[in-house]
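Quick one before lunch.
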Amino acid sequence: MDQTIVVAQMRQLIQVLAQHNHAYYVMDQPTIEDSEYDQLFHQLKALEQQHPELTQPDTPTNTVGAKALSKFETITHVVPMLSLGNVFDQQELNDFARRIEERLPNQKIQYDVELKFDGLAISLWYEHGVLVRGVTRGDGETGEDITENVKTIRNLPKMLCSDNVPIPELLEVRGEVLIPKAGFNKLNRHLKKKGEKEFANPRNAAAGSLRQLDSQITKTRPLAFYAYGIAQCKPSHGFKTIAESLDWLKEFGFENYDHWVFDSIEDVQKKYDELTNQRSDLSVEIDGMVVKVNNIDQQLKLGFVSRAPRWAVAYKFPAVAALTTVENIDWQVGRTGTLTPVARLNPVAVGGVTVSNVTLHNIGEIHRLDVRLGDTVSVYRSGDVIPKVEKVWPEFRPVDSVEVHLPEQCPVCDSPVVMPEGEALARCSGGLYCAAQRIEAIRHFVSRKAMDIEGLGDRWAESLLHLDLLKDVADIYHLHAHREKLLTIEKMGEKSVQNLIDSIEKSKKTSFASFIFALGIRGVGETTARMLANTFQTLDALRNADLDALKKTPDVGDITAEWIIDFFQAPHNLEVVDRLIAAGIHWDAPIAPTRQPLNGESWVVTGTLSSMGRDEATQMLQALGARVSGSVSAKTKCLVAGEKAGSKLDKAEKLGVPVLDEQAFLALMAEYGQSLDT
Ligand code: IVH
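Model of the 2-(butylsulfanyl)adenosine complex:
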């Protein structure tokens, strides 16, 4: 290869790696998966091996990370904190063992195997048993003084005590700070509740917590420390093996996770296979295991090469991230009409599983990622999480890449796709007609507060769909013509068929409000349906209502108004509505309310009422045009307070909202012509 091309490749890799290093070590906001970083790092290393003479002076293969932040005091490590070389498969592990055997011919070699914790390396100094200093790894040469924060970590001894062994004058312990999975989930739940930003993963959470300038915040974070090595001990502890020295640390109260000693590299491989399967059951995140020559004299003989020990290696788990290309993007229509883009990928192995499809969630995510057909993307899985596109690599974008747009028509039923401003999700407007939404539309249509067709939703809906008897909800009213077919459904006897047909027949007499609710128009719940029925009185008036008239209806917000327009503009929906009416659905013409004295007012009902339930009180209020809300605010017109009214009553009093007790409420209702039996 031409030398200038090699140098150009090296320069590009160095630049990309430097950016990611900064994001990872300094900003605590990794921009790519570790495994992808490793891939790029390996590419650079391979180039350097092939062309050592072209190795660039600033190559990251010779350093550990980026410089420490300046906000904490900087401390130089007396013993540098180095990194580990990586191996990814049995062959590479065997190569590691072979290199050791070659340097230590005819010696018995034992391996100490530990978990490779996915947290942050720190160093702890104990002078005469007292914790005097805690330092981050930083760039390996200098780190940050985080002593105050380290002192808040619960499972870490602030003072070394032991009845059995003398306390060393100086002890420098190295290990990993992390947040165990359970603590991580709890922390994120807590942050979410407070409306704060959640952490993307336990490692970021640990890094963010450890880097707090205020140690009182660190104290609230469930950090844990696991020791994996001793950098200095004076006087010497005298142990011959790392395994013994780790067990000795336990004497002083250090926690170290299980570690294992094996006599052969084959047994090390077996342990790796075992851990690969157990990984998700562990209480902490790990990204592999660390294999160390157990004997400390042998370690000293083996020494270091290019800032990593020859005597240890990280045996990483298979990549949880991989690069692949986007072949296509399909739009799937969910049961509620939501359109979800799904990227069809060139199949790629990610964490041992072949991934060929990955959801892109919504059009906003497509724009955020700026993903186009033909793009190279990184796909990752962590734990048992579903695969995700993490980022697009614009540097690999082909010239013929194709931008992705939201389809104008539903890919299932051709109805227009709608997405009101401010909404993240696009939807198919063919609610009643669209095959993808059929089952949900039917369940809703027959539910108690809608058309109230007993049994159909829970028991028979799926079977009827399978028999192709229900293409849309209007077909329900033609089921009586298919008695024979109905009888073929498992557990459906003569009696059930008759019951079903009877309750379908009975449902034809309904109310305008229930019918509107049954249509399943987005945003139109029971109350809104009632308001629409009261306001528009007839189906024709509702169908032809314009945006302004809809927006003026109590309980109808701007977005809902648009959904209603969209619904009645879709020809398929109108067709189904017409067929429903033609099938005999009818309701009593609404008695025009002589007046709606509470029109548009917001009321709240709370506490226990003795003569009625809260539902009934709500209905009376709604019949008079009021909106009944669940919480008291400055906008609340009046609070109806029964017995044991709690915080809502307090709030109403505080805000000066008028309060009616049950008696006064009944009196007012009577004045407006509402009583319990109307
Ligand atoms: S020993 C001289 N043991 O891996 C080598 N490191 O690339 C000292 N790590 O940042 C490292 N678990 O924080 C060792 N059981 C373990 C480890 C471990 C995680 C991290 C360490 C360092 C990185 C080395």
